[in-house]
Design goal:
Radius of gyration: 15 Å
Shape: globular
Oligomer: single chain
Largest sheet: none
Structural class: mainly alpha
Order of helices and strands: HHHH
Number of helices: 4
């Protein structure tokens, strides 16, 4: 079980790096929340709607996280594209 946890953590770390350009603990945590929230929203939208109603401050924080990840992703993609163009 410990081996699986390490392997899964490596997957999450690489996903974070590819998504936002770097993988430090705070970014991994943000990406974990983002990925899990997105998955639940797609599979059980009524649950997310209920949660958003119960916890408006949680919903606001999730919107902040999604926005921040989007910004980091766009910046990272622009940097990657710039490097490709320079080659």
């Amino acid at each position: 079980m410990k081996e699986f946890q390490e392997q899964f953590d490596a997957l999450l770390e690489k996903y974070t790096e590819l998504l936002v350009g770097e993988s430090d603990p705070s970014k991994k945590e943000m990406v974990t929340h983002y990925a899990l929230y997105s998955f639940i929203a797609k599979n059980m939208p009524a649950l997310v709607k209920h949660w958003n109603g119960l916890y408006p401050e949680g919903k606001a924080e999730m919107k902040r996280i999604v926005g921040e990840i989007k910004e980091m992703n766009e910046t990272h993609r622009a940097e990657v594209n710039e490097k490709k163009n320079d080659e």
